[in-house]
Amino acid sequence: MSDRNLAMLARRMLAEILAGQEPGPVDWDDAPAGLFLTLRDASGRVRASIGTSRAEATGAELLRRIARAAVGDDPRFPPLQAGELESLSVTLWELVDPRSVRGPEELRPDDAVRVERGRLSGVFLPENYVGETWDAAVFLRQACRRAGLEAEAWGDPETRLTAFRARRHDA
Q: 3-state class of 123 per DSSP?
């Protein structure tokens, strides 16, 4: 599927769900390592952002799940209303090629990273990075904080780091 088709597919599914319909069939049998869907309003504020970094289903099934969740299951935001969708931008992050990493020297600017230690975990997408120029060590510290850990937790042998190539699709 092309970049444009994935983002438009996400938008179509959201519209169908908001209209009270079951999303139509999708021909996407590959299983990405994960998917994240972010919806933003016209001013750039996040309206919903939800996803998974676990290869637990086909791309079509993962997209259905996160589209449903984006409509009403993101606890940080009120449920979406049908009239909102047209004014929202849709970004779909497709996570592929997972690999274990040990530190910042193994990260690239287009990577997403999952940080896990004990019961705490979090995924940090390239769009979450805050800084004027990309710095792998800063990226990893921010990812640790996102996971609810101290910034230097990546150096703890109990912390697991998984990097993914993150493909961004916009509509």
A: strand
Structure tokens at 112: 């997403």
Q: What span, in angstroms and rounded, lies between the C-alpha atoms of 96 and 81?
A: 31
Based on its alpha-carbon atoms, the radius of gyration of the chain, rounded to whole angstroms, reads 16
Q: Which tokens belong to 129?
A: 């990075």
CA distance 157 to 128: 25
Tell me the H-state helices in the chain: 3-18, 59-72, 136-146
Is the pLDDT at 3 greater than 50? The verdict is no
SS3 170: strand
Ramachandran angles phi, psi of 93, nearest 5°: -100, 120
The 10 Å Cβ neighbour count of residue 145 is 15
Query: At 56, which amino acid appears?
Result: E
Q: What is the pLDDT of residue 69?
A: 95
For residue 33, is pLDDT > 60? Answer: yes
Point out the least confidently predicted range of 4-13, 63-72, 110-119, 147-156. Answer: 4-13
Total number of residues shown for the chain: 171
